[in-house]
Design a protein that fits this description.
About 50% of the residues lie in helices and about 20% in strands. It is of the alpha/beta class. The protein folds into two domains: about 50 residues, no CATH class; about 60 residues, Winged helix-like DNA-binding domain superfamily/Winged helix DNA-binding domain (Arc Repressor Mutant, subunit A). The protein is globular and about 50 Å long. The chain starts with a strand and ends in a 5-residue tail after the last strand.
């Protein structure tokens, strides 16, 4: 089954509204489709967090599969310390998974961004 992650620009109030709507639907006996969402307070924060270098890291991991941070840095031709810092931050956000034997991997088949105007 394909796993996808949605990136959104949304306020904390909007995230709470989504949670409340889901809670109410479950309380009424409904079912929720599996959905994984990572929300950012604003577009500048999303862009500061998901930099071009970090996006390249995600793309490389998606293409190559699980590798060590050292090997990932070598393949990206980047400094190990910077790749380690980026991989750690992406893991904190749930965009990268840490696996056995010090490997990192992408657990998503797709990352979708939803940016609404006039939020």
């Amino acid at each position: 089954m394909a796993r996808s992650l949605s990136l959104r620009v949304a306020s904390s109030a909007q995230a709470l509204d989504r949670f409340e709507a889901g809670w109410n639907q479950l309380a009424e006996g409904g079912r929720l489709p599996p959905e994984r969402v990572l929300s950012f307070a604003d577009l500048p924060l999303l862009l500061r967090t998901l930099t071009p270098a970090r996006w390249a890291l995600l793309e490389r991991l998606a293409a190559d599969g699980p590798v060590s941070v050292y090997e990932l840095a070598r393949r990206l031709q980047r400094d190990y310390k910077n790749v380690h810092t980026d991989a750690k931050r992406l893991a904190e956000l749930g965009l990268v998974e840490r696996r056995e034997h010090a490997l990192v991997a992408v657990g998503w088949d797709a990352v979708r961004a939803e940016l609404r105007l006039g939020v």
